């Protein structure tokens, strides 16, 4: 651990757009986690970030890797920069918490997970939607089988990203940097949350397109039908072409009730006429500002990762569990390209 207080020693790699909620969460967790260095290649932006949040700068990745006080790295770089960083961290004995996706392709994601497992190190992935109070309440209810058997699922991610200020930025929406479009960059959160609640998807039938609202290499609209391993059916629509953007919603239809997660709230509609609500409305990053959401979800995820390291367990969201959503996205995109129903496991790195 980092110091006599028993705090986890953490180094940050990357401090761009995705860093703000992490920084706020780490400030709130200062009694548990000590941020011992932040590295970003742009020194001026690194120093401004560190001054804003009160974190010490690091001159290089190597400085962080060589610091014996640092137990883990929080990696917030674009996907195309991560595989080599993970290899270096693994060889230095640093645990890793990393922004989604694991990598741009499933093959690269599998290599990343394997490298950490071979080194005996923990790899956590930032899927903060699992840590909303409403999401956790629904997960508990499903685990206790309060609603009966799951029969149908609907996932809606009706988001907006502008061309100017978002897709016009170099690398945004490209295969080389991001690995894809709306599925792997935005809807991956909704899909990971869905899988954590439903279990695996068996087959998909998908359609993908790039609308005239964007000039980009990859898709900004996907619609799909889903068949789950437990026999339930589902529908997905995800887009970044829905101005001005709205909250994601996930609806689960069970034998005795329907449950909807939307905007940070869980609404349960029982078939006997009762209704319940857990949580309340919150921003979800569905509009032009992708970071317009509270940081408490990140705080809960980072706290879970730190507790997992202390107690020797796996965190709730790991590199291994993240491979499931990567393979589902592969299947959706392969189905859209081929124009036919596909089994998820048939698509490989597709």
UniProtKB/TrEMBL annotation:
InterPro entries: Gfo/Idh/MocA-like_OxRdtase_N, Gfo/Idh/MocA_Oxidoreductase, GFO_IDH_MocA-like_dom, NAD(P)-bd_dom_sf
Matches recorded under SUPFAM superfamilies: Glyceraldehyde-3-phosphate dehydrogenase-like, C-terminal domain (SSF55347), NAD(P)-binding Rossmann-fold domains (SSF51735)
Domain Gfo/Idh/MocA-like oxidoreductase N-terminal, first and last residues per copy: 10-124
Domain GFO/IDH/MocA-like oxidoreductase, chain residue ranges per copy: 137-258
Domain of life from the UniProt record: Bacteria
PANTHER family registered for this protein in UniProt: D-GLUCOSIDE 3-DEHYDROGENASE (PTHR43249:SF1), UDP-N-ACETYL-2-AMINO-2-DEOXY-D-GLUCURONATE OXIDASE (PTHR43249)
Protein's UniProt name: Oxidoreductase
Species the sequence originates in: Devosia nitrariae
């Amino acid at each position: 651990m980092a110091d006599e207080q028993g705090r986890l020693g953490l180094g940050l790699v990357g401090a761009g757009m995705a860093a703000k909620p992490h920084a706020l969460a780490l400030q709130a967790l200062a009694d548990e986690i000590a941020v011992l260095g932040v590295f970003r290649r742009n020194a001026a932006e690194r120093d401004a970030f560190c001054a804003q949040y009160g974190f010490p700068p690091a001159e290089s990745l190597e400085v962080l890797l060589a610091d014996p006080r640092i137990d883990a790295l929080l990696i917030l770089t674009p996907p195309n920069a991560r595989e080599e960083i993970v290899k270096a961290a693994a060889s230095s004995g640093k645990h890793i918490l990393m922004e989604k996706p694991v990598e741009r392709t499933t093959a690269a994601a599998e290599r990343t997970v394997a490298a950490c497992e071979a080194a005996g190190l923990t790899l956590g992935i930032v899927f903060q939607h699992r840590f909303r109070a409403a999401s956790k309440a629904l997960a508990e209810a499903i685990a206790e089988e309060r609603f009966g058997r799951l029969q149908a699922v609907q996932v809606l991610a009706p988001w907006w990203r502008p061309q100017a200020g978002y897709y016009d930025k170099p690398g945004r929406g490209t295969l080389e940097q991001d690995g894809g479009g709306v599925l792997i960059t935005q809807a991956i959160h909704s899909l990971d949350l869905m899988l954590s609640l439903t279990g695996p998807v068996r087959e998909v039938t998908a359609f993908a397109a790039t609308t005239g609202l964007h000039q980009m290499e990859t898709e900004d609209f996907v619609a799909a039908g889903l068949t789950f391993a437990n026999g339930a059916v589902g529908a997905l629509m995800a887009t970044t072409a829905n101005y001005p953007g709205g909250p994601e919603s996930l609806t689960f239809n069970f034998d005795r009730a329907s449950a909807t997660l939307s905007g940070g709230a869980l609404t349960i509609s029982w078939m006997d006429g009762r209704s319940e609500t857990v949580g309340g409305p919150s921003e979800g990053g569905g509009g032009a500002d992708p970071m317009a959401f509270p940081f408490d979800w990140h705080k809960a995820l980072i706290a879970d990762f730190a507790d997992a390291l202390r107690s020797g367990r796996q965190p709730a969201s790991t590199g291994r569990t993240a491979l499931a959503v990567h393979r589902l996205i592969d299947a959706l995109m392969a189905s859209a390209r081929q124009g036919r129903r596909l089994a998820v496991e048939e698509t490989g790195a597709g």
